[in-house]
Amino acid sequence: MSGAGDEALEIVRTADADACARAAADLVADAVRGGARHLVLAGGTTPIAAYALLDAMDLPWDGVHLWYGDERCVPFDHPDSNHGAVSGVLRAAAATWHPMPGALGPLAGADAYATELERDGPPGLAFDLVLNGMGPDGHTASLFPHHPLLYVGGLTAGITDSPKPPPERLTLTLGALNAGARLVLLVTGAGKAQALARVLAGPDDGTPSSLLARDRLTVLADAAALGGEDA
Ligand SMILES: O=C1O[C@H](COP(=O)(O)O)[C@@H](O)[C@H](O)[C@H]1O
């Protein structure tokens, strides 16, 4: 099924959030088994169930680099840390983890991560798979509606005025996310239905998730987020 007026964007609809997590985990597992080497993990609460499912799979993590789309400027043991939450459920000990150094602060942290990406990142800085979450306001990674960071170049950026706490964060830029060979937007729950409808309607800088490269984007969403009862 495709979004209205957009033949390329793919929508995978699941009955509920559990099924969405299973579909996301299967998609990542297939990518890893298929040779994907550089993956971007989404932060936030939505993908945690998928990461826990991945942890229970026997996957060839050796040689796989795990990057992040964004991080909050807190230590990894802080409850707001994306890496803290992800690494609490997904071990993938054989993978090479690249947590964003949020504790360095927004500017030094963004610079350090860009340097790490240039050194250890994928050829052409094009990730094999980029997982994205979305907030109810349509933000993805730490790219917020109408925020000036939506329009910056480079690989990474620091934000000091995030409308969602905590205010200081690190994020990949839209250009870095969109350099991915395949992008996934993982969305569950009725609270995100309005923002998801805007994503499906077309690009709009009031809804940063709608600016993800639509020709390579799979929207993986449950029936509640897609605004209706399951069929
Ligand atoms: O702050 C953030 O929010 C989004 C959405 O999070 P969720 O808890 O609603 O799933 C997330 O994708 C981003 O990584 C995170 O830092």
TrEMBL record:
InterPro entries: 6-phosphogluconolactonase_DevB, 6PGL, Glc/Gal-6P_isomerase, NagB/RpiA_transferase-like. Pathway: Carbohydrate degradation; pentose phosphate pathway; D-ribulose 5-phosphate from D-glucose 6-phosphate (oxidative stage): step 2/3. GO terms for molecular function: 6-phosphogluconolactonase activity. It catalyses: 6-phospho-D-glucono-1,5-lactone + H2O = 6-phospho-D-gluconate + H(+). Its EC number is 3.1.1.31. The keyword Transport does not apply. The keyword Hydrolase applies. Keywords: Hydrolase. Residues 17-213 form the Glucosamine/galactosamine-6-phosphate isomerase domain. Belongs to the glucosamine/galactosamine-6-phosphate isomerase family. 6-phosphogluconolactonase subfamily. Hydrolysis of 6-phosphogluconolactone to 6-phosphogluconate. NCBIfam families: pgl (TIGR01198). This is 6-phosphogluconolactonase. It comes from Paraconexibacter antarcticus.
